[in-house]
Amino acid sequence: MVEENKQVTVKTVGTHRVGDVCEMTVARTNEIGAFLNAETGNTSDDILLHKLQQETPLKVGDKVKVYLYLDPHGRMTASCKLPKMREGQIGYVKVLNVTKLGGFVDIGAERGVFLPYSEMRGHVSPGQLVWVKLYRDKTGRQAVSMRVEEEMQKAAKPAHDVQRGDILSGTIYNILPEGFFVLTQERYIAFIHRSEVPSGRLDFGQQVTGRVIFVRDDGRVNLSLREIKEKAQLTDAEKILELLQKRQGTMPYGDTTPPNIIKDVFGISKAAFKRALGHLMREGQVKQEEGWTTLLTKEEDAKEQ
């Protein structure tokens, strides 16, 4: 796919506009390709469908479905490579590049489509997959917007057959201070509160898999990306053991350590830290003395018992 790297003036030929998908008739052919009848009464307006953009060889009178776009010289050109989206639809697309004017995304057509900065959400980077809506701006040019909330509500369906504990996967389409909205593979709308995200951060378009913790009356669900408490306790215990081993068996952290320090060092809450530490103490793997935690050897464990 050829990427656009600058804004161009929208061009119209008769009733045909850049970005249209339409069926046209071959008016004439030459060694370059087929010229499609723009129905203006002027053969100089006929639109080139280059032979490299044809799926099969064409002859005069053939009808062909094409996508209209501007070539690097600003001329309307046709391609048999059709976009995967139509105006008003939403799609999960890749960002091709980002310039000082905005971004360009791949909708499956011959050229990238413009994503204005005013329609971006978050920090958008090349290669990122994001949800967008295809529309025409005030100048008539095709563009996309990451503001897709209304379209998501129309496209979604209620999660009637979902229960607590079910695992669902989806992609982030909106982010609020309170948390993240997801469209699942089943087309359910799910919400993830920030407290249910271990890192506290997710990005637009990011793929996630979570556990259902609540099914709402309106058919939406709440998800958590945290492990279930029993499994999380073992994972957190492994973090504590790993740090102890790196520090030759001792560390200045224990039950009395402030929560903010625990969060900075281990990335978990004080409550989770105490649960994991309690598990290790019951297993005879560590002991606490004067605010310090120490890794026990087998001999020391036997003495403790």
Features:
single chain, 305 residues, alpha+beta, OB fold (Dihydrolipoamide Acetyltransferase, E2P), 5-stranded antiparallel sheet, 20 strands, disordered N terminus
Q: What is the fold's blueprint, element by element?
A:
Layout: E1 12-13, E2 16-17, E3 21-29, E4 33-36, E5 47-50, E6 63-70, E7 76-79, E8 90-98, E9 102-106, E10 113-116, E11 129-136, E12 142-145, H1 149-155, E13 167-176, E14 179-184, E15 189-193, E16 207-215, E17 221-224, H2 229-246, E18 250-251, H3 259-266, H4 270-282, E19 286-289, E20 292-295, H5 298-304
Parallel strand pairs: 5-7, 15-17
Antiparallel strand pairs: 1-2, 3-4, 3-6, 4-5, 6-7, 8-9, 8-11, 9-10, 11-12, 13-14, 13-16, 14-15, 16-17, 18-20, 19-20
Helix pairs in contact: 2-4
- What spatial order of strands do you see in the largest sheet? 3-4-5-7-6
Q: Identify the CATH homologous superfamily of the largest domain.
A: Winged helix-like DNA-binding domain superfamily/Winged helix DNA-binding domain
Helix content: 10-25%
Shape, please? elongated
Rg over CA atoms, rounded to whole Å, is 29 Å
What structural class do you assign from the helix and strand content? alpha+beta
Class of the largest domain, according to the CATH hierarchy? Mainly Alpha
* Poorly predicted parts: 1-8
Query: Do you know the CATH architecture of the largest domain?
Result: Orthogonal Bundle
Strand content bin? 35-45%
Tell me the series of helices and strands, N- to C-terminal: EEEEEEEEEEEEHEEEEEHEHHEEH
Distance between the termini: 70 Å
Instruction: Summarize model confidence as the mean pLDDT.
Output: 88
Number of strands: 20
Number of domains: 3
Helices, by number, come to 5
CATH topology of the largest domain: Arc Repressor Mutant, subunit A
The biggest sheet, with number of strands, parallel, antiparallel or mixed sense and barrel status, is: 5 strands, mixed, barrel
